[in-house]
């Protein structure tokens, strides 16, 4: 099984790529994730949703570029 990790998206970003990264992780449409997150935030008085987004933006790492993968590849030495 492939090692799946949650990263901020580089392609599907509106602000910091958090929702796009979550959508890529679960293999769903990023717009659907954004709408669900907006509804969650709206019905919880918005303030907790903003705090959660800021925390996620700080905690979720950026997706490494392909060159980062190549430089850490254990077979690249051979």
From TrEMBL:
The chain crosses the membrane at residues 35-60. The keyword Transmembrane helix applies. It is found in: Cell membrane. GO terms for cellular component: plasma membrane. Keywords: Cell membrane, Membrane, Transmembrane, Transmembrane helix. It is a single-pass membrane protein. It holds the Pfam family PspC. Residues 4-63 form the Phage shock protein PspC N-terminal domain. This is Stress-responsive transcriptional regulator. The lineage of its organism: Bacteria, Bacillati, Bacillota, Bacilli, Lactobacillales.
